[in-house]
Amino acid sequence: MSDKTSIVSLICAAGVGSRMKLDRPKQYMKLGADPMLLHTIRAMKDVERLDDIVVVVSPTDPYIDEIADRFPEGVRLLRCGGKERAESVVNGLIAANFPRDAWVLVHDAARPCVRPAEVGKLIDAVLSDETVAGGILAAPVADTIKRVDANRRILETVPRGDLWRAATPQMFRVHELIEALSGNLTGVTDEASAMERLGKSVKIVQGRTTNIKVTEPADAVLASLLLGDTAVVPFRVGQGYDSHRLVEGRPLILGGVHIPFELGLDGHSDADVLLHAITDAVLGAAGLGDIGRHFPPTDMKWKGADSGKLLAEIVRLAREKGWQVVNCDATIITERPKIGPHVPAMEASVAKLLGVDEELVNLKAKTNEKMDAVGRLEGMMAHAVVLMTRVER
Ligand code: MG
User: Fold this and answer.
1) DSSP helix/strand/coil, 264
2) 280 alpha carbon to ligand 1 midpoint, in Å?
3) Which value, to the nearest 10 degrees, does the dihedral of the CA atoms of residues 250, 251, 255, 256 take?
């Protein structure tokens, strides 16, 4: 194989993606900050050995102009897509004016998560095997496969040992692919199937299962995650802090548990310093501001309020916004009383308010080593962190 044979790529972006129910074709759907098509182009641009990349869109595509000026340098845009994928590929191969004997990697715009390394592996595998007309990235079928009848009753379990899921890129000689895609295309669903029907030998090269085709809305979430879009990371962390004075004549309530002591915490509500810190942590994780915004101390409605009810309300609000508590870790800082014996009851109480298992609440107590106001028993402090996860609404 000559080193001088050029290797080019054609990215097919002429589809309409009706399954996504979007107002525009799916290749323009945003994954993180950028539309899918830009991610796909950048991934192919990162493949070192490509001499040329063209993107084929429909001649009537009104959206391409919004992003065409953001194409990486050297990537060419061809407005010659057809009704069917095969037509778009043939039109593109001809319009691109690629060398006839060049190798072309046809790639699907809806596979933005392809990695340059797996494309390199495909190129190596095809160039090093003179017995094949080309090759494709594919992944072994992991699921058990059933063949069914018209009523969706299982007819048989299909042995899957020799079954693979075809992906893209698919790599062939330009002139051979044009010829293959110019014949009868009944039953042809990818470039390889057109080559197969001409009796050509096509090699399977194992790619990564992360090279997904974005077809359904859930695929877009997965693709965004794979592309490192932090906005779709399904976790949020929140931090909370609170302090209250210790005074005579008030009950001491911590984590919703009444603790016998000669002093109690002073405040507008029941002054449960631990629950206030945890409430702020939940608010922080859910991006809902702080406790004062939801329960202003100037509002008489909250005078003497049970802080457990306030926390439960905030947990409900966070859930409404799509966030659920995973776990909570908190620290109470006080000289006295001894908090340790009350920790199990407090953990159970907090877990119930947060709607999680007791295992997922961890409370700690420290003294302030007699330093400062807390050390002089003038007040108590609490710190909390809460992790939340996205839930389906
Ligand atoms: Mg407070």
Assistant:
1) strand
2) 9
3) -120
Percent of the chain at pLDDT > 70 equals 97
DSSP tag of 72: P
Residue 19 has a pLDDT of 61
Find the DSSP H helices in 250-304.
Answer: 273-286, 291-294
**CA 273 / ligand 1 centre spacing (Å):** 5
Look at the block and give the residue holding tokens 């700690």. 364
Q: How far is the CA of 309 from the centre of ligand 1 (A)?
A: 14
Helix axis angle, 36-45 relative to 217-226, nearest 10°? 40
How many C-alpha atoms does 361 have within 13 Å on its Cβ side? Answer: 22
- Angle in degrees, 0-180, between the axes of helices 307-320 and 343-354, rounded to the nearest 10: 40
Spacing, Cα 243 to ligand 1 middle (Å): 6
Two tokens, residue 155: 């007819």
Q: How long, in residues, is the chain?
A: 393
Give the distance (Å) from ligand 1 centre to CA of residue 93.
68
pTM of the model: 0.70
